Every structure is written in C-alpha cells, then in structure tokens.
Amino acid sequence: MDELKEQRILEFVLQNAVRGDPQSVVDNIDQYCRHKEWAMNVGDEKERQTMCRVVEERAPSIALELGTYCGYSAVRIAKLLKPGARLLTIEMNPDNAAVAKQIIEFAGVQNTVQVLEGSSADIIPNLKEKYQVDTLDFVFLDHWKDRYIVDTKLLEECCLLRTGSVLLADNVVYPGIPDFLEYVRFCGRYDCTNYPSHVQYMNKEDALEKAVFKGYI
Ligand SMILES: O=c1[nH]cnc2c(O)c(F)c(-c3ccc(F)cc3)c(-c3ccc(F)cc3)c12
Ligand SMILES: [Mg+2]
Predict the structure, then answer these.
(1) Whole-angstrom Cα distance, residue 114 to residue 43?
(2) pLDDT tens digit string along 111-137?
(3) How far apart are the C-alpha atoms of 103 and 26, rounded to whole Å?
(4) ipTM of the assembly?
(5) In Å, how far are 46, 71, 165, 192, 196 from 121, measured between CA atoms?
(6) Residue 196 to residue 194: CA distance in whole angstroms
(7) CA-to-CA distance for 177 and 2, rounded, in angstroms?
(8) From the annotation, which residues make up the binding site for Mg(2+)?
(9) Cα–Cα dist 207/112, whole Å
(10) Most buried in the list 28, 68, 133, 154, measured by CB within 10 Å?
C-alpha cells in the first residue's frame, strides 16, 4: 500500500523538526505543506493568527478540538495553553489519529493534548463521565462540514457549554457551512463574529466564525 500523505508529513517532521520543540514542529509542517504537498491542516497566516488570538483571549483551562487531522492545530493550541490546562482532540480516521499522536508526542505536548480516536457523536456524550470534563471553555470545529451543527447541538444537549464558552469554526465560507452559521447566528444563544480568511495557497475566500455561548436561554 503506498504511503499516505499524512505519513510523509510525519516523516518530514521526524527528520527535520527538533524533538520537544512545538514551534519547530508546526514550522516544519508549514514548510512541507507550502513546498511539497498541500494539506488541509495548514491554515493561512490570518487563520493561524485568528485562531491563536482567540485561544489567548479565552485562556481556556479545558479545550476541545473536533478534527485532529495530523495534529498541527492541536500543537499550536497546546503551545498557547496555561500550565495545567488541557486539550482533548477528536479524530475519527485511525490513520490520521496515529500520525497525530506521534507528532504531538514528538512536539512534547502529549501531557497537554489527549487524542480521542472515534466519532464526535460517540465521544462528546462521554466527555463528562469518561474524561472528567465539567464544561468546555473553548471548542475548535475543524472536522467535517456536515457535523458542525449536529455537534454544536450535542454539546448544548450534553450541558458541556457554559456562559462564555467559545466555539471557533474553520471553513465557514469554503467549503462553507451554511446550516451551522444560520444556527449560531439566529438561535439567540450565541454572540457571533466572522473573521475573513482564505484557503491556504488558493485564492478561495474562507472565514472563521467565533460563537460565544450566552447561556441556555
Ligand atoms: O474537510 C475539511 N475538514 C477540516 N478542514 C478543512 C480545511 O481547512 C480545508 F481547507 C479543506 C479544503 C478546502 C479546499 C480544498 F480545495 C480542499 C480542502 C477541507 C476539505 C473540504 C472538502 C473536502 F472534500 C476535503 C477537505 C477541510
Ligand atoms: Mg479546516
């Protein structure tokens, strides 16, 4: 079976990045994906800056990512978390989860980031009992466009959000997630902000949407 692109990204990181240095790991993934093979984990500068600024503003103690892929954004988020804070990241593709675990371990953030392999539909209802989550301070939605609204409603139903919880959704313009945008903007429970961006290396407009939960009104 020919090697997967994600395994080539992992190999490049293992051979070129500095073990225990998260910045070196994300820089090498950027370099590989800029010069060798496009991959969907590499947000463009604005997207990276926006995601990092939102995480720093929220300073989460407990964060959730939906869609680990190779672990690129998990390493970026882990770098920004305060001591003792943790990131749970859900990945349903076992090959991607295996690559992400190795990249996260190589970056030295394995004590901050826990990769949960499986579907968000199965894992989210277990976060409280199985993963000792009370409520989530920050959620990064970056998995699959058809799951954003379903998983947002599931987070509400499982009482995993509290007043001030921040949802940040990637790709709301391209590929586009119209049902999710309509829900968070008009259900009355979120304050929303849109951050224009563009798909990496393509002149396709994209955007991130921040939705701050106002409570179960
Ligand atoms: O699926 C995704 N999840 C999370 N983030 C993504 C992301 O940040 C992306 F930039 C893309 C993207 C956008 C444009 C493009 F040309 C290729 C891929 C995708 C995506 C969209 C449609 C697919 F069929 C496959 C991948 C995703
Ligand atoms: Mg994305």
Answers:
(1) 22
(2) 999 999 999 999 999 999 999 999 999
(3) 10
(4) 0.98
(5) 30, 20, 20, 24, 29
(6) 6
(7) 33
(8) 142, 170-171
(9) 28
(10) 68
